[in-house]
């Protein structure tokens, strides 16, 4: 960032006229300045450490991500387990989905969209209508036909593939995925987006010609998940997991270790073994590979993969034509990523108690520009310099223009606005402070994510 600032040229005749912190109206292709005062991001700095007045039972504690997302105007409670996603959260979610799209399409994924309403007949045929119990949101239309709001889409996607009876082995593997709202009637929704009743999920469903091919697909998609979390800079672990109500013969979870997590994990210190305690028989205390003592931790599940075999394809008769032109059941897998849970879990594990820290790839905005306080001796010259910096950056790097905010609340001190910028988690903050009137003028550039323990690094940059 400091390097970018050094490329800016000195400004001519700064004192000729005063430029206010307002939106710039230019010709075609000119980017309008995005002003902080115009963003719909209502701050709720009075939110404390319990859920009273927000959701759940009064007096229950809020976790870190829930508190910060409420304070920072990212989410607003609608009803227990349901939230309004406010514009900054939507921006972060869209960026996260873009990264997911890249990883899924890199392994041959094709994106589609399936209905949220799924017929009761489909779920009854698979046995999950009864097995899911009260977690399934059920409803009936005016004709008495039963439906559920899908928490997952194994039945629906298998019916879709089964409807195409001329599917050939030459068209396999088939890897279909979507990013949609999901619904689960949580008995006790809590911790904001970490355990909610309505949420966004990326779910992929794969169809292969053989068990061997399906297991290769399983490894491939798991590798894509590892790549995703590596790109986000999240400290994940892949652990052996139970198959639960979805079923299948093999399953793994992707977990972010965190004290607030509801899953208990055992890990080999040498990395040879990792599992959810649900999968252990008795008290397993040492690694089966190296015999080192296993350590225990809690985790937040952010992804889950399943090798399903023919569990669902046999119910819906999802077949393909083999090289001998005979129908054969497809071998399936399913793979989920909790989109909104990853947003919250990222904040949970990366942030300080009072300041959001985002994975840099998905921060709602990358840059915050802070001009001098109104009425200060630096106001005229510093404002002109900073606005010129904003505009030059927008022209040189248009993608950053859409990722930059100008904090035009100049009635507030620089310190107050910097504190807000730190709390809201902008990765970079550029300040026109007292040294902006020096010769040459100097900006402060704060790298919010670079310091140890959440403390930002401060650099100086000279335009020109």
From TrEMBL:
PROSITE patterns attached to this UniProt entry: AA_TRNA_LIGASE_II (PS50862)
A cellular component annotation (GO) from this entry: mitochondrial matrix
Keyword Glycoprotein carried by entry: no
UniProt-listed InterPro entries: aa-tRNA-synt_IIb (IPR002314), aa-tRNA-synth_II (IPR006195), aa-tRNA-synth_II/BPL/LPL (IPR045864), Anticodon-bd (IPR004154), Anticodon-bd_dom_sf (IPR036621), Pro-tRNA-ligase_IIa (IPR002316), Pro-tRNA_synthetase (IPR050062), ProRS_core_prok (IPR033730)
Biological role stated in the UniProt entry: Mitochondrial aminoacyl-tRNA synthetase that catalyzes the specific attachment of the proline amino acid (aa) to the homologous transfer RNA (tRNA), further participating in protein synthesis. The reaction occurs in a two steps: proline is first activated by ATP to form Pro-AMP and then transferred to the acceptor end of tRNA(Pro).
EC number from the UniProt entry: 6.1.1.15
GO molecular function: ATP binding; proline-tRNA ligase activity
Family stated for the protein in its record: Belongs to the class-II aminoacyl-tRNA synthetase family.
Source organism (scientific name): Calidris pygmaea
Localization per Swiss-Prot or TrEMBL: Mitochondrion matrix
Catalysis performed (reactions): tRNA(Pro) + L-proline + ATP = L-prolyl-tRNA(Pro) + AMP + diphosphate
SUPFAM superfamilies attached to this UniProt entry: Class II aaRS ABD-related, Class II aaRS and biotin synthetases
BP GO annotations: prolyl-tRNA aminoacylation
This protein's UniProt keywords: Aminoacyl-tRNA synthetase, ATP-binding, Ligase, Mitochondrion, Nucleotide-binding, Protein biosynthesis, Transit peptide
Protein name: Probable proline--tRNA ligase, mitochondrial
Domain of life of the source: Eukaryota
Ranges of residues in domain Aminoacyl-transfer RNA synthetases class-II family profile: 94-359
Presence of the UniProt keyword Iron-sulfur in the record: no
């Amino acid at each position: 960032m400091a390097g970018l600032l050094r490329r800016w040229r000195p400004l001519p005749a700064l004192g000729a006229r005063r430029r206010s912190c307002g939106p710039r109206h230019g010709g075609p292709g000119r980017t309008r300045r995005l002003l902080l005062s115009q963003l719909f991001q209502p701050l709720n700095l009075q939110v404390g450490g319990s859920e009273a007045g927000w959701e759940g039972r009064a007096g229950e504690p809020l976790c870190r991500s829930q508190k910060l997302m409420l304070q920072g105007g990212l989410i607003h409670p609608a009803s227990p387990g349901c939230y309004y996603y406010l514009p900054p959260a939507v921006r972060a979610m869209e960026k996260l989905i873009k990264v997911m799209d890249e990883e899924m399409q890199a392994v041959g994924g094709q994106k589609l969209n399936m209905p949220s309403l799924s017929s009761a007949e489909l779920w009854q045929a698979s046995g999950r209508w009864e097995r899911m119990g009260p977690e399934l949101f059920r409803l009936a239309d005016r004709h008495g036909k039963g439906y559920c709001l899908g928490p997952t889409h194994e039945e629906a996607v298998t019916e879709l593939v089964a409807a195409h009876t001329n599917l050939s082995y030459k068209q396999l593997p088939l890897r279909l995925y979507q990013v949609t709202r999901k619904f689960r009637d949580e008995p006790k929704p809590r911790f904001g987006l970490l355990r909610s009743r309505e949420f966004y999920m990326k779910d992929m469903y794969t169809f292969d010609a053989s068990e061997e091919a399906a297991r290769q697909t399983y490894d491939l998609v798991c590798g894509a998940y590892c790549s995703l979390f590596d790109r986000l800079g999240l400290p994940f672990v892949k652990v052996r997991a139970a198959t639960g109500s979805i079923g299948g013969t093999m399953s793994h979870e992707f977990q972010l270790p965190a004290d607030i997590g509801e899953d208990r994990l055992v890990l080999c210190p040498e990395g040879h073994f990792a599992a959810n305690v649900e999968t252990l028989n008795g008290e397993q205390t040492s690694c089966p590979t190296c015999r080192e003592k296993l350590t225990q931790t809690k985790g937040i599940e952010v992804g889950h993969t399943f090798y399903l075999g023919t569990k669902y394809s046999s119910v819906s008769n999802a077949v393909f034509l083999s090289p001998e032109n005979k129908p054969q059941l497809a071998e399936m897998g399913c793979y989920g990523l909790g989109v909104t849970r990853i947003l919250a879990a990222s904040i949970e594990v990366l942030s300080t108690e009072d300041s959001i820290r985002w994975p840099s790839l998905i921060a709602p905005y990358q840059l915050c520009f802070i001009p001098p306080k109104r009425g200060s001796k630096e106001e005229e010259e510093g404002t002109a310099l900073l606005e010129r910096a904003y505009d030059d950056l927008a022209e040189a790097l248009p993608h950053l223009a859409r990722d930059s905010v100008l904090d035009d609340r100049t009635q507030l001190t620089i310190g107050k606005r910097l504190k807000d910028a730190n709390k809201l988690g902008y990765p970079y903050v550029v300040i026109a402070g007292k040294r902006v009137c020096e010769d040459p003028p100097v900006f402060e550039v704060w790298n919010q994510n670079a310091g140890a323990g959440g403390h930002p690094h401060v650099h100086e940059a000279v335009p020109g």
